Fold this sequence. Notes:
By secondary structure, this protein is mainly alpha-helical.
Amino acid sequence: AEAHPEMLERSCASFEHLREALARVFETGSDDARVAAEALYIWSALHGFASIRQSGAMDKLGIEQDVQAVLSQHILGQISKALRSDGAEAS
Length: 91
């Protein structure tokens, strides 16, 4: 963050846009606890996936190319499914 303050600023702005979008989905404020939790869930999932792709780890893990080709859609589908859930907390 110290070396790239502009990147941190853009990241914070992007995260806030995500929170605002989720607040509209849940019809609540962007400071709502569920909005924060879902935003962090989405942010983490996408950044983790991006890191895995960028590092070439999927090839090292033996994930076939045809599976890799559909992973982006799968992950976005899982996020969408989670957002449509009834909000019940997993134990």
